[in-house]
């Protein structure tokens, strides 16, 4: 839930935010530690709470459930299809965000996936075990998402 300070601590709060609000939250958040283990993913449509909840549910059922970060922190696999198949590898490293130039955690598919080679994700920690991410297709921001880790990453 959102606190009086305006901090977002729950995925439900993120689903209600507009694109400018998500962008502001991303810009004002630190990169945090690189996550480890399995993060439950939620697509953030940024079109109002109800349409965003529906889109998030459909995306999770049909296409994408989240990301699994390797224990060493240098790569991840996405959980895709209705069966949660671990596929679509990305390199994970710290770098400058394309949105504001400040440090973020980059999820880079350019050298690891033929299908997703034009995709770059950037994430920042917005709360205990909760990360906000942007998806770029080429240099164009196309989508936002969140990752929730049950064992909070410091």
Give me the strand/helix succession.
HHEHEEEEEEE
* Biggest sheet statistics: 8 strands, antiparallel, barrel
- Nearest-angstrom radius of gyration? 14 Å
Instruction: Provide the helix percentage.
Output: 10-25%
How do the strands line up in the largest sheet? 1-2-3-4-5-6-7-8
* Unreliable runs: 1-5
- Provide mean pLDDT, rounded: 89
Quickly give the structural class: alpha+beta
Compute the separation of the termini in Å.
20 Å
Strand percentage = 35-45%
* Number of strand segments: 8
Count of helical regions: 3
Shape: globular
Summarize the structure.
With 154 residues, the protein is of the alpha+beta class. It has helices spanning 11-15, 19-27, 49-62, and strands spanning 37-44, 64-69, 75-80, 85-96, 103-108, 119-127, 130-137, 140-149.
Structure description:
The protein is α+β, with helices and mostly antiparallel strands and 154 residues long. Helices cover 18% and strands 42% of the residues. It is built from 3 helices and 8 strands. It has helices spanning 11-15, 19-27, 49-62; strands spanning 37-44, 64-69, 75-80, 85-96, 103-108, 119-127, 130-137, 140-149. It has an 8-stranded antiparallel β-barrel. Strand 7 (130-137) and strand 8 (140-149) form a beta hairpin. The chain is globular and about 35 Å long. Mean pLDDT is 89; it is low at 1-5.
């Amino acid at each position: 839930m959102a606190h009086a300070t305006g901090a977002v601590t729950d995925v439900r709060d993120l689903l209600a935010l507009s694109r400018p609000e998500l962008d502001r939250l991303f810009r004002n958040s630190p990169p945090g530690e690189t996550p480890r283990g399995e993060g439950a993913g939620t697509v953030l449509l940024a079109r109002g709470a109800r349409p965003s909840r529906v889109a998030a549910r459909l995306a999770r059922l049909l296409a994408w459930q989240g990301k699994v970060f390797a224990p060493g922190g240098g790569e991840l696999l996405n959980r895709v299809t209705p069966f949660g198949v671990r596929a679509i590898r990305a390199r994970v490293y710290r770098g400058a965000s394309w949105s504001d130039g400040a440090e973020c955690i980059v999820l880079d598919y350019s050298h690891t996936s033929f299908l997703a080679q034009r995709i770059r994700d950037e994430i920042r920690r917005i709360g205990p075990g909760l990360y906000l991410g942007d998806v770029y297709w080429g240099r164009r921001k196309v989508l936002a998402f969140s990752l929730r880790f049950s064992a909070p990453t410091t």
